[in-house]
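Entry 0007
Protein: Probable aquaporin TIP3-1
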Amino acid sequence: MPPRRFALGRAEDAVRADAIRAALSEFVATAIFVFAAEGSVLALEKLYRDTSTAGGLAVVAIAHALALFVAVAVAINISGGHVNPAVTFGALVGGRISLLDALLYWAAQLLGAVVASLLLRITTGGMRPLGFSVASGVGEWHAVLLEVVMTFGLVYTVYATAIDPKRGHIATVAPLAIGFMVGANILAGGPFDGAAMNLARAFGPALVGWRWWHHWIYWVGPFVGAALAGLVYEFLVILAADTAPSQLTRQPLSPEDY
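Output (structure tokens):
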């Protein structure tokens, strides 16, 4: 099978009913995720005035995992359940979505994150969303590399469980696998840079809370990691599997081969 081709999309496609439904689904799902995820951070801040403890990190990781599991599950049959501009970018690089659809998804995801952050600020009596920041002693480029690695793992998981045409029954656990991947990465990278892996998740709280310190890291790192994952899975995993000889056509091993 030849590699998938990059598609720009047509202007009239933006007003298709299914395109509008998909964008709306991404907006709602991203708002659900960001509200619960950032809300867990604000709740810890209100209760203990400290979100840097081991217990706090575990709670935040679990909250993110569960919230993303639900957000992906409610959107996966309509939009594919990206809930993350980086995931959309990985799919775009792999030729699984057109540029026009990707732009619609990005707009919906960023807007959903902003609305969720605004709702949090209103419902918490004016608490500023904390968003993400690089820990003391961690270099900017170290944080970028960390975001690249974590987002690569996330988008690779999305490809394997939700995008791969041969995913089979594993697709039923895609939302859970994706949520678990994010939760695990937060446990690994949270103490260093917060472990965003999601441009919308970083942008909404940054805009509403007006906290822009090192914000560029949470755009560059996830985009690079997502692009690498999309290229690796699409052209080295899917394409290689499609061009490999069928297991059924191979000669059986003789006793001397063992």
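Curator remark: The chain has one domain: 13-241. The radius of gyration is 20 Å.
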